[in-house]
Write a structure and sequence with these properties.
With about 160 residues, the chain is α/β, with parallel strands linked by helices. The protein is built from five helices and seven strands; from the N terminus they run E-H-E-H-E-E-H-H-E-E-E-H. It has a single domain, classed as 3-Layer(aba) Sandwich (Rossmann fold).
């Protein structure tokens, strides 16, 4: 497990970009935290770290936003408005579980019972004027992500 204090939205985006540098195809990241805690900001940093130059908005109303990037397929889910976890089947989640697409899933607790397990759980909490971010590996792929991130910390 890694913990980081993020003092600004820019620091949250920077952590997302660093995650992008450690990411492997097929990774599933669960992003948890209260409204406004920085889940979409972290996702924006990750997407920009993978080369996306357009707008990154929270898919709160569409539930999922697909991104086709150079060498990457990524699906950004926001389950805040999900009324029943079984809806994920109708929204095509199973088709995205091909071992190649990266899934960023905000509000994963709303999809409990239907969501695949996370490789990495990212929890953002309010802390003073910033955010505390806890990253916890849930698989070998998640542990590799944490190891690469820790290596990036020592290289800085």
């Amino acid at each position: 497990m890694l913990e980081r204090y993020l003092d600004s939205a820019a620091a949250t985006e920077a952590l997302g970009a660093r995650l992008a540098g450690a990411l492997a195809p097929g990774c599933i990241l669960h992003l948890s935290g209260e409204l406004g805690a920085g889940k979409t900001t972290l996702a924006r940093g990750l997407l920009r770290g993978l080369g996306h130059r357009g707008t990154v908005k929270s898919p709160t109303f569409t539930l999922v936003e697909p991104y086709q990037l150079e060498g990457w397929r990524l699906f950004h889910w926001d389950l805040y408005r999900l009324t029943d976890p079984e809806e994920l089947e109708f929204l095509g989640l199973r088709d995205q579980l091909d071992g190649e697409a990266v899934l960023l899933i905000e509000w994963p607790e709303r999809g409990r019972g239907e969501l695949p397990a996370a490789d990495l759980e990212v929890v953002l909490d309010y802390a003073d004027a910033g955010r505390r971010c806890r990253l916890e590996a849930c698989s070998a792929a998640g542990q590799t992500l944490l190891t690469v991130l820790a290596g990036q910390d020592t290289a800085r």
